[in-house]
Amino acid sequence: MKIYNCDAFEKIYDFQKSKLKVDHIITDPPYNISQENNFSSMSNANRHGVDFGEWDKKFDLYSWINIYCQILKPGGSFIIFTSYRNLSYVIDMIEEDKKMVVKDILKWIKLNPMPRNINRRYVQDTEFAIWAVKKGAKWIFNKPRNISYLRAEFHTPVVSGRERTLHPTQKSLKLMKDIIEIHTKKNQLILDPFMGSGTTGVAALELDRDFIGVELEKEYFKIAKERLNNIPEKLDL
Questions:
Q1: Is pLDDT above 60 for 147?
Q2: C-beta separation of 133 from 78 below 8 A
């Protein structure tokens, strides 16, 4: 496994030069949903509202997608978390590459969502991910034998307790493990170009997959590295 503290928009050219091919890309890039508010300067992390930081502002949501599609192997899954506001735009961008086809929208339904402005709007308890595959080979879908059919829904709590890091949009380890178990096989290579606190990498390694991660922010890269270092004999920097 390898991780890089650099810009994924630049690192892709190194990947291309080395002729890297990955089995799957599973990632949670910035959503560009941060808003200026009165909470940013407060020391209490629970009062940050929806201002996650500069990394979630003016992020180029789309141009990286087609470039990364080029290093995905036929039959590989491309799973991208995004805001409901961006779903149609991301789908259009993925399918600009005629070798890619969108299969479904995955839903992460949070069992303990953060209640905000509950007297004026619905509780925001769901995040979305687009599942696409590359044509040319059979894609992976590991449906458990003990159930009749799978809904595109994953029900887990928001991260808390010992699993929680300083990353404000950290995904649940159980969520990522469930997705990886369904859409990948053991010993395959998963790439996360926006790995944040490294949850996709932790899930991949604990399920005997290989992993490449890229993260620009030094603080989050350090968190990811520390988490991944706790998985023995896996890290190759």
A1: yes
A2: yes
DSSP per residue, 221-233:
HHHHHHHHHTSTT
Work out the percent of the chain whose per-residue pLDDT is above 70. 86
Instruction: Return the half-sphere exposure (C-beta side, CA atoms, 13 A cut-off) of residue 14.
Output: 10
What's residue 53's pLDDT?
A: 47
Q: Using the structure block, give the residue that is written with the tokens 């890229």.
A: 214
Please state, in angstroms and rounded to a whole number, the distance separating the CA atoms of residues 191 and 1.
10
Strand order across the beta sheet in which 2-4 lies: 2-4, 210-214, 189-192, 24-27, 77-82, 126-134, 100-110, 153-156
Total length of the chain: 237
- Tokens for 188, please give them: 């395959």
What is the tens place of the pLDDT at every residue in 54-87?
534 578 999 999 999 999 999 999 999 999 999 9
Percent helix, strand, coil in the chain (nearest 5)? 30, 20, 50
Q: Residue 16: enclosing H or E segment and its boundaries? A: helix 8-17
For residue range 97-117, list pLDDT tens digits in order. 999 999 999 999 999 888 878
pLDDT band of residue 121 (cuts 50, 70, 90) is confident
Q: What is the DSSP string of 54-113?
A: GGGSS---SHHHHHHHTTBPTT-EEEEEE-GGGHHHHHHHHTTSTTEEEEEEEEEEESSP
Rg of the Cα atoms in the chain: 17
Q: How far apart are CA 83 and CA 95, in angstroms?
A: 18
Query: Which of the 8 DSSP states describes residue 192?
Result: E
Using the predicted structure, report yes or no on whether residue 48 has a pLDDT greater than 80: no
